[in-house]
Design a protein that fits this description.
Length: about 350
């Protein structure tokens, strides 16, 4: 009988693939935040998930991933950690602790997430209801070690629902996690994965996906983030750490949201109106196709749909003009004219960012 019970325990462990129960209490309080980044061209984005770590000298730093940062876009000027339930500002950061990581290396022959981190510092708030987390300094966690993911959820009182999982793979370059329940991953890069053995952060969510009803996570190991914090490198202003300084906003210019990214001449607007006469109500969407190697080409089409987050909408000579966020930097300041002469007819783009072409 005793042997039979022992076998049941062993089989249960093999089926579950993880330790039987947590050895530390589940953390509570405000653990994760919604990052909001502001850029020198006036744009604001909400990306990933952030949390706060207490350093050895008692200061608090923000931690998230780096792979979603645009190092070729406009410089970042500030970062805020917002409370998930109501978007209220909890922390504001102005500097990066050393240079951000490169976002990790992922390819056919490499999978290395050790440098997928963005560590930021700023002024300490006078009072804040926040639970700083501690990074796990173990070289490697145990395979089958149970973990928690604070799964960001604006409808939850604390801004997240705790999801259980376990370590299914350990390597120097990353840590693999399988969640007990399948979830939809959306804007969760940078989330802390907390060990149920130590109560400390094993790593940050760097890559993830679902397959056959299971959700798998791949982490930037906490020990690599901890090494940067312990080294205490010189801080950098955010505009020096993220983005291209040459794209900093000229104070004399308005932002894309305040003006028309693309202007139509009266001739172009008249031709557009003529073409729209027999069509359902629509907007005129401009975009950029191609790349640096193949060359760029202007795109122009009628579109009945607008993304309220990603699209800039303006009116030029009575025509609703739409430009998506990714195309703004390539189309900003463009004028579109309609030519009809002995050389032919067509739309002509006067784009200061690209070589002219005609449609």
């Amino acid at each position: 009988m005793k042997l039979h019970c022992l076998l049941v325990v062993v089989v249960c462990f093999a089926v579950c693939g993880c330790e039987k129960a947590p050895t530390v209490p589940q953390p509570t309080g405000q653990l994760v935040f919604q990052p909001r980044f502001q850029f020198a061209d006036g744009e604001t984005t909400h990306q990933g998930t952030g949390f706060v770590v207490a350093t050895a000298d008692g200061k608090r730093v923000g931690v998230t991933s780096a792979h979603f940062l645009d190092f070729e876009g406009a410089p970042m000027v500030s970062a805020e950690w917002l409370a998930v339930p109501d978007d209220s500002e909890v922390f504001q950061f102005t500097h990066s602790l050393g240079a951000p990581g490169d976002g990790g290396q992922v390819g056919p022959d490499v999978f290395d997430l050790r440098r997928d981190y963005f560590i930021i510092v700023g002024d300490e708030p006078a009072t804040v209801d926040c639970q700083p987390l501690e990074l796990d300094d173990r070289p490697r966690p145990k395979v089958s070690e149970r973990v928690w993911l604070p799964n960001k959820d604006a409808d939850a009182p604390e801004g997240y629902e705790m999801v259980a999982g376990f370590v299914d793979e350990v390597a120097d370059e990353y840590i693999g996690i399988e969640l007990v329940d399948e979830i939809q991953l959306q804007s969760q890069s940078g989330s802390p994965i907390i060990s149920q053995r130590t109560g400390k952060v094993l790593g940050t969510l760097a890559r993830g996906g679902s397959d056959a009803g299971k959700t798998f996570l791949r982490l930037c190991p906490a020990k690599d983030i901890l090494e940067v914090i312990a080294a205490n490198p010189p801080t950098m202003k955010l505009e020096q750490a993220v983005g291209d300084p040459s794209l900093a906003r000229d104070p004399s210019r308005t932002t894309a949201a305040e003006r028309s990214v693309v202007q139509l001449t009266s001739a172009a607007a008249k031709e557009i109106a003529r073409r729209m006469e027999d069509l359902p109500p629509a907007h005129l969407r401009f975009s950029i196709d191609g790349d640096d190697t193949q060359g760029f080409r202007h795109g122009m089409q009628f579109d009945e749909q607008i993304d309220p987050v990603d699209d800039f909408v303006s009116v030029s000579h009575g025509v609703n003009v739409v430009v998506d966020r990714a195309s703004v930097r390539y189309l900003d300041g463009t004028t579109v004219d309609w030519l009809d002469d002995e050389e032919g007819m067509g739309f002509q783009f006067d784009n200061p960012n690209l070589v002219q072409d005609e449609e």
